[in-house]
Amino acid sequence: MATEQHDTSSATQRLAIINNLNIKAFSAKNQQALTFIILNETARLVPYDRAVLWDMREKPPRLLGISGQASVSQTSELAQQWHQFVGNFKTPGHPQIVTEESFIGKTTPWQQIQQQQQGTTPFWIPLPIKGKEGLGLWIERWSGKQWQQSDADLLMTLREGYILALEKLFPRLPWKQVWKKTSLLAVVFFLFLSFFINVPLRIVAPCEVIPNEPVVITAPLNGIIAEIVVKPGQNIKEGDVLVEYDKRVPLQELKVAQKQVQIIQTELNRALTQGISNTETLAEMAVLKLKLQKENIALELAQYHANQLSITSPLDGVVMLDNPDDWKGKPVRVGERIMIVSDPAKTKVRIWIPEDDNVILRHDIPIKVFLNVNPAISRQASLEYIASFTSVNEKQIRGFEAEALWLYEQQNIKMGLKGSAILYGDDVSLFYYIFRKPIAFLRSITGL
Q1: What is the CA radius of gyration of the chain?
Q2: 300-327 burial code (b ≥16 CB/10 A, e <16)
Q3: Domain covering 215-340, topology
Q4: Measuring CA to CA, which residue among 174, 168, 166 is closest to residue 37?
Q5: From CA 233, how far away is CA 117, in angstroms rounded?
């Protein structure tokens, strides 16, 4: 009689524990809390030495937690041994006492664990989610302690409550796995379609607004610059003075030339007067006429130099000049460039095409220009010229220089503005468009 009462009391106590564990599992607010209950609280019903929880939805299975440990290492030696066990189950969907025959093939770590812990007896409890593969609970007893049928019955009873709690907090497939599968399918599908979708090959290159048909102001004679009268960016009118030469030497040379002409003219007049009575003087007159002709030429040259001491603008426009102060007192030679005067209403686009992007471009398709000052506005231009040789730009980058003319009149565009130009080539497959540069890079490395 006393034995029956004890058995009844013990059974009632176990049912109370199962009920309490189920309530806790259902009350868990997140996956971490439920994992803790499964790993640690289950020992209240059936004693064990260690429990390990696995996510069987991922391939290979992922270690979720170990009883009595706040964090787990996926790369520890013991974790790697467990991975070999759990990943090689013959029937991972059936509850079972784990033995060496439970695995596909022979696992060397099984003997190592048996020796280290003096006989480990694991019990495997699958926890499916909505009828599909879900989590798995690996429970160990050490030092040769065996599992009884009564222990298995209690764990199977508790298992049903855990399964219902898992279905509430764990999705049928982990989002990472779903994401991986979906992403892989999307990538494969996209790569397949990319061979059949044609798009115009286009390149993006840096560009700059430069003057169209500018007038280069050069030095008209050898001399020394006294002053640059205008400033960079200044608006000027036709005839405005731009540059003043140092006038001292040219004016002095003009005076000397004038004096020389006067001297020779005086000598010639004297020879004419004396030539009436002196035949020798008549012969000297021919020489003096040649000298006078030579000095007149020198005088004309001196007068020309004197007239060129002030350089004026040939048109209305804007001055393009670096630093005016650098020119003060600087000697210049004939033809040396001093500045540029351009019409602000006449501009064009200079484009710098990188070496690797010098593909065959179509001149019949307008290019799009986006200036940095207002990148929201697209401007159209017609590609006019591409250099056939490379050069180095101001950033020491080698490339091909190109020029384009605006298709429509552009208002309030300052010279020197920079931006990006989009140039178009022939139609190519989307695959080639995307992987052109990576393939070229790989070939440059491998030589294939």
Answers
A1: 48
A2: eebeebbeebebebeeebbbbbeebeeb
A3: OB fold (Dihydrolipoamide Acetyltransferase, E2P) (2.40.50)
A4: 166
A5: 88
- Max intra-chain CA distance, the chain: 182
Closest CA to 243 of 324, 158, 136, 333: 324
Cβ-Cβ contacts under 8 Å for 47 (sequence gap 6 or more): none
Residue 395 DSSP code? T
Q: What is the pLDDT of residues 371-413, one digit of tens each?
A: 998 888 899 999 998 988 888 877 788 889 999 999 988 877 8
Q: In angstroms, how far is CA 185 from the centroid of its own chain? A: 27
pTM: 0.50
Superfamily name and number for 16-173: GAF domain (3.30.450.40)
Dump pLDDT digits (tens) for 310-333.
Answer: 888 888 888 888 888 888 889 999
Q: Measuring CA to CA, how many Å separate 280 from each of 273, 283, 284, 285, 286?
A: 12, 5, 7, 9, 11
CA–centroid distance for 239 within its chain: 49
CA angle 83, 88, 94 (to 5 degrees): 105
Flag whether pLDDT at 271 surpasses 80: no
Distances (CA, A) of 135 to 24, 68, 125, 207, 310: 18, 19, 9, 60, 94
Structure confidence by residue, pLDDT tens digits, 19-70 = 888 898 888 888 889 999 999 999 999 999 899 999 988 888 889 999 988 7
Residue 183: which pLDDT band, with cuts at 50, 70 and 90? confident
Q: What is the mean pLDDT of residues 106-117?
A: 67
Domain boundaries 202-212+343-429, CATH class: mainly beta
Q: Number of helices and strands (H, E) in the chain? A: 9, 20
Q: Could you tell me which of 235, 47, 65, 41 has the C-alpha nearest to residue 146?
A: 47
β-pair partners for 63:
54
Beta strand spans in 215-314 (E):
215-218, 223-228, 235-236, 241-245, 310-312
DSSP state of 356: G
Q: Is the pLDDT at 2 greater than 60, yes or no? A: no
- 3-state SS assignment for residue 65: strand
* Residue spans per domain, the chain: 16-173, 202-212+343-429, 215-340
